[in-house]
Amino acid sequence: MAAEAAVVRVAVRVRPLLPREALRGHRPCLRSDAATGEVELGRRRFRFAAVLPEAAGQAAVYRACVQPLLRAFFRGFNATVFAYGQTGSGKTYTIGEASDEQGIIPRAMAETFRLIDENDLIDYTVRVSYLEVYKEEFRDLLQVDTASKDIQIREDDKGNVGMCACAQATFLPML
Asked: What PROSITE patterns does its record include (predicted)?
């Protein structure tokens, strides 16, 4: 499915048991099928745009979930990547930079700047905000002393939705 063909695509990454969980006798609670995009939990089945099995590395997650959005973004489409899950489910590992494998944010930023460098016909300015939503409160990860109550979701006259009172890091092209 093309990135722009659906308004929202949901992908599931199955986290393997941690060594300490296996030592305590924990067992996997679901079955997944990457080919069909299905996850089975008890007697219930759920279908997703993508299911990434336990063995899927960071590069596979990026290729399946983020790279198509980034390419669509450079063709003029809006794109958002949102990591959701309970504490300990692997969100930080997936988006961040672990010592062994880069997550989706460093990969997306590297590819963004590579694509910009390849296009000499357009001038780009890149602005980045980095937010965490935890227990229904916003946290600005670029300006950690910003109070959650100061960060608000707003819609402008053109229907564009954005966050107010968030820090932005601006990257200008090198001349």
From this structure: KINESIN_MOTOR_2
3-class secondary-structure state, position 22: helix
Asked whether residue 76 is marked as a ligand-binding residue, the answer is no
- The helix, strand and coil proportions of the chain, stated in percent and rounded to the nearest 5, come to 25, 25, 50
Per-residue pLDDT of the chain (175 residues; tens, 9 = 90+): 454 455 789 999 999 999 999 999 999 999 999 999 999 999 999 999 999 999 999 999 999 999 999 999 999 888 889 899 998 899 999 998 766 789 999 999 999 999 999 988 888 889 888 888 888 889 999 998 888 888 988 999 998 888 888 999 998 766 6
Residue 90 annotated as binding site: yes
Query: Is 152 known to sit in a ligand binding site?
Result: no
Residue 146 marked as a ligand binder: no
Where does 3-122 sit in CATH, by number?
3.40.850.10
Domain map (residue ranges) of the chain = 3-122, 125-175
